[in-house]
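To: structure desk
From: M.T.
Subject: fold request, one chain
Message: Could you run this one when you get a chance? Sequence is below, nothing fancy, just the single chain.
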Amino acid sequence: ITVCVTRNYATGNKINEETIDLINGKTGEATHTMTFSGSWDSSGYACYDANWYSSDEEIFTVENKGNDNSDAVLTAHDVGTAKLYCVSADGAFRAERTVTVRPDKQ
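Reply: Done. Structure tokens follow.
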């Protein structure tokens, strides 16, 4: 559970990458941007935490990168497509992108 105490409140969440293509057996990264509104302009008062999910963990898995922005590391396991979800820590904002895993041509 993540608790955020802040004077700014979240107004949105988006995954920054427009397309996400991975090679089977490889890893990639995804980043997100939270938008805020409120009485302070400093990002020091904002909570950027997010939780990441894969719609099909047989295609790819995802885990939090552990950085201050709660970005993600994706690991490709099988060829196909699945959805990547990024949900704000408070659960109010969800972003999604399609992830395509392509075969390793080597």
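Reply (cont.): The chain is about 0% helix and 55% strand. Let me know if you need anything else for the meeting.
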